[in-house]
Amino acid sequence: MSDTGIEQKPEFQEHHSREEHHEGEHHIVSIPAYLMVFGVLLVGTILTVAVAFVDLDHIFPGANTLVALAIAFFKMTCVVLIFMHVRWSSRLIWLTALAGFFWLAIMFAFTMSDYLTRSPGVFQR
What pTM does this model have? Predict the structure, then answer.
């Protein structure tokens, strides 16, 4: 019997409890985990500024930009996984997040294909 005094079938009770468990299940991230991500973001920002002061063009033109984008991508991944709770979400949320990253990769590919096919022009050293 339930709290309302009405007897429920076992199949309904099992299905109903699974729905409540799935719907009501929220992952609570601990404060040390948030502080760890904050530290990662802080170190990433400091690293990005440090890379900006080092000339990496001797490796290949635009290496500074590539390193800065790689650091930014890592920081973005930390924010999405921890702060936005994607790490503990359903597969549909994972698929949506991955689709966003895939679309971002497409946009970068188009941008870089345009950038790499241009003549040096005014900005040549």
Answer: 0.62
